[in-house]
Amino acid sequence: MKDFIIPDDRDLGTPASHSDITVTLTVDGIPVAVPAGTSVMRAAAIAGITVPKLCATDHLTAFGSCRLCVVQIDGMRGTPASCTTPVAEGMIVHTQTDEVAQIRRGVMELYISDHPLDCLTCAANGDCELQDMAGAVGLREVRYETGKNHFQRRENGETNPEWRAKDHSNPYFTFDPAKCIVCSRCVRACEEVQGTFALTIDGRGFDSRVSAGLASDSFLSSDCVSCGACVQVCPTATLIENKVIEVGTPERVVKTTCAYCGVGCSFDAHMRGETVVKMVPSKDGKANRGHSCVKGRFAWGYATHAERILNPMIREDYRDPWRVVSWEEAIRFAADRLRATQERHGRDSVGVITSSRCTNEETYLVQKLARAVFGNNNTDTCARVCHSPTGYGLKTAFGTSAGTHDFDSVEETDLALVIGANPTEGHPVFGSRLRRRLREGAGLIVIDPRHIDLLDTAHRNDAIHLPLLPGTNVAVLTAMAHVIAAEGLYDEAFICERCDWDEFLEYRDFLLDPRHSPEEVERQSNVPADLIRQAARAYAAAPRASIYYGLGVTEHSQGSTTVMAIANLAMMTGNIGKPGTGVNPLRGQNNVQGSCDMGSFPHEFPGYRHVTDIETRKLYEQVWGVPLSDEPGLRIPNMFDAATQGRFKGLYCQGEDVLQSDPDTSHVQSALASLDILIVHDLFLNETSNYAHVFLPGSSFLEKDGTFTNAERRINMVRKAMTPKNGYADWEITVMLANALDAGWDYSHPSEIMDEIALTTPSFAGVSYDLLDREQSVQWPCNAKAPLGTPVMHIEGFVRGKGKFINTEYVPSEERTGGRFPLLLTTGRTLTQYNVGAQTRRTDNTVWHPEDVLEIHPHDAEQRGIREGDYVRVASRAGDTTIRAKITERVAPGVVYTTFHHPNTQANVVTTDNSDWATNCPEFKVTAVQVSPSNGPSEWQEQYRSHSELSRRILPAAE
């Protein structure tokens, strides 16, 4: 496919107005009609007339400081700034008069007099707005003599006291204060777009400087989160990406989608040949609206990292060294072993694990491989390991297994209830959008064992934090519903119209049982009863309230029940089916939603249709040309159990590192070591590959075409920016393996796979690459009823008909604290690392998070004689590991917390095999542990490290 180049990506100077009133004016004799509230500058740009500017950009609200954009307006005195002057009916604007031209040249001359004129060697040459504007206003000379300025290092042999050195502290960009024109764009972007408030203007007048915190701070030591918004809006080379300095200006642009979290940010990959120069968030990206985080904007270097494996490898036994072979030999070896395994142990002895990091098309093919080639339904995915309770709970309550609203909806919410999620760390671009809404006055309720950054949002209303004990989500949410029911705060009209009233009355009777009162629940959850009442009243009173949740909801033994409790709250208050409301799961990986949609579960075909459904099975049998099994297959934990029992012997694992990401690591080790054939298809030798017999090198998102589906059901295009370094895109590799097993697949491009998905999956019926190229993205369901997709679901009625209320009985986890294990461990993510860290650990993001640490409350640390930075042993009923301690009051006494991004920690060696009652989703968030001082790595860690080094030996290539 051709590179997708945005046809019109002009910066129109100021943001668009959303007024329904149209105003007509004339600019340089050209009539133009624009919404009321539009700036004169933007109106001129729409008319095709460019007004010079430096401080203005349509990413930010108008500021009016540079004075370069002055115009003359009939009937108005002086020369107002066009960026801050709104249009008016009948206004006549002149942008090119002699007076205006003289003012602009004078202003520009002042800027240039205080700027180093090193344009030929400047990294921004060819992409510098200051340079462009000097030409636009016709500046040809500077009359001012050299004197005191901000860029000369020496004056008369002495160091200039005003001069400041470049700041190279950030690994991704450089700050050169000598080139700063103090337009304040960076400061405003940090405030308006990111919401971090890390930058400020220090000093006044000629002494004004951009400052990242205190005078002693650098960009690295400041509160800067390296989102890159400041770099993107800088009009000079003051803030510039190091890759641009190193490589030069790009020559082409390819539009694609970020391969990190479930926000699904659109990016423009700026390329020079086969080299990525920079990733710029797309201004028209419907999920991110021109913003990004440190991972998406900067952490793409893993695609060319030296540790990436580019050639297939095989070995007879996982204890042998790897042998590099051709693609033909690797595929033949894998196919022969799979065939032999099925002949020896039966059709059901092999299976697949699909990836939430791969495209929809690739995931679809892997589950098809299991069903149509292996002849069984043994297909599962990490999406079930993290979000299957979302699918079960929402499908039961609403009739569909996905979030209800788009991200734009947050801009209309009056209150956000965030439970079991940390958006500013795990979903930072959405977190920034939510922060902006909070600064505008929306209320906030956070239900989480930790104090998360969102609670510290600048200019927020007083937030309500319910610091519950891990595992008590259901009890707290049911207590909130109890208050709403007891005080009559529910929306009776909505319930009568959209739900079954008699069913609600039964649910209300259930809620009013005294055991669900806040006072009773306080004993179980440690959340004060008055806080529960306060939160319930606030949620019910908000005109438009939305719920956002994450893995802190789903990864529990009652994950599905918690999702149902969330759905109950939304329905009983009428907060569903209109902007600013809804039930919105925040997906952890880029294609968790798509992995579920594509039929990765052992009991469901694509589109969430059960394998026992005769009509669905007939459809696939007709399209695929083979008979299909109606017997649900094995989930991942069932595969592991069967492997240790000798019944499951072969696994094709694409893009997943189950040894690091799944619970009870020792059990996973035993299972993988029991397999006759383990095929790992990935970018790097990961922890799972320690036990593999075949390694098939994968391709990065920069090297493939396809689609991802984000948390808001948005289907985004992924476009190839560079040639696959391993020779093949991932979908091609799966096709080769299938055809080696006599499948006879003949796809020539991922668009053909999407056509098959559309043919067989009702919610994707209208989706095609042509549609996605034209519309940028669409949200499923996309079909004849909704040809351009569905941003908000359940507007007039639920998919299932009437919304269903479900009694949410609180059942405590089997994992309990006691004398041996008195603390509760819960886990989460950090901003700069991603999932198991395979990608981000191979970038400069390790500057911020070089290792996992254990957060522990000062009281618990003092009791155990633990100091900041000490090694501590974390032991549970399942195992133990060693990690450094971080003493903090972010966690409550009795609770400890860690991340799981680094394999040398292997946090999951201590997590148990407890899981959600309905979906088998592991209970990562509740583990009883003891923490004690340690001298260093545990015995298990030492043994694991030794085996890992042994298993990654690669024989020299044959001459």
TrEMBL record:
Protein known as: Formate dehydrogenase subunit alpha
Name of encoding gene: fdhF
Homology family: Belongs to the complex I 75 kDa subunit family. In the C-terminal section; belongs to the prokaryotic molybdopterin-containing oxidoreductase family.
Keyword Repressor found: no
Gene3D superfamilies: 2.40.40.20, 3.10.20.740, 3.30.70.20, 3.40.50.740, ADC-like domains, Dimethylsulfoxide Reductase, domain 2
Domain of life, per lineage: Bacteria
Residue intervals of the 4Fe-4S ferredoxin-type domain: 171-202, 215-244
InterPro entries: 2Fe-2S_ferredoxin-like_sf, 2Fe-2S_ferredoxin-type, 4Fe4S_Fe-S-bd, 4Fe4S_Fe_S_CS, Asp_de-COase-like_dom_sf, Formate_Dh-H_N, Formate_DH_asu, MoPterin_dinucl-bd_dom
A GO molecular function held by the record: formate dehydrogenase (NAD+) activity
E.C. number: 1.17.1.9
Keywords: 2Fe-2S, 4Fe-4S, Iron, Iron-sulfur, Metal-binding, Oxidoreductase, Repeat
EC main group: oxidoreductase
